[in-house]
Amino acid sequence: METKTLPELGYTLHTRKRSIAIIWTAVITITCIQFEVFYFTLHYAAHKKRDKALEVPTTIMLVLSVLTILYRSWLLMKKGSKCRVTGGRWYSMDFFNYTAILGFAIVTAVLSIATADEDVDMRMASIPQAIILYLAGGLLTITAITCSLGLKLPISMSSTPRGSVCKPGVFVVVEDIVAVDGGGGEEFRRAWSARYEASKTFRRMLVQLNWFWGVGSVAVAIVTTVVVYVVNDLNVVFAIDAPFREEPALTILRPFETRNNAWGCKAFYYHAGRGSLAAEDGFQ
Question: Where are the membrane-spanning stretches (predicted)?
Fold first, then answer.
């Protein structure tokens, strides 16, 4: 009798711990720490007006965001690209890139309006992180609903072509980030899709994570919005809000994510004879 084996991803995070640490240190510094340092230093120590105090950190974040999006677009569109979406043309970008561009455009518009006058609208200037969470969480929640209903995609989502049954948004996010930013390339995109199609347990895990991150992100965004527009002291609003600029749900959701990943690993790598959940898929 032929033994079925689960498709290998050919990718591990164990050898990339240093890179992950460097990237997240940079993200936290750029989106959180430098905002706090520059704003309070320039506004209270250098006695600059709020618009000038926010000008420096906002410019730094926006410039670096543009450079990041351009670099990522170049990786996807350059001649001989190895991380392009499966079946994509040279000018094709992945779904994550399109979403990043949309989010950047919205945040830039909001910050421009908030800081247009000398009397800065601090509440509006503190809302971009909630906007990103509404966008990301909303997309994840929508894909969770469409996936549960078995609806077909009206547009392509990275390597999932238009007309295919919708997959969880988490599936697309992981595919795009690992393939491009993580260096997994087209091989990872194909392996990731093969794993999804082969394993019922894997699909179930992604659906659960998709619901949790989608609904969780929207919930955190709502709480953040309430804080921004209810708290009277604007400095408190800015100080409390800044640490949540990038991924406010990370700490809250980490225990659930860890538990699910551990459950998923058992399903993927334990032998069926040891009572593995992989037995549900018929893999050994």
Answer: 21-42, 54-74, 95-116, 131-151, 209-231
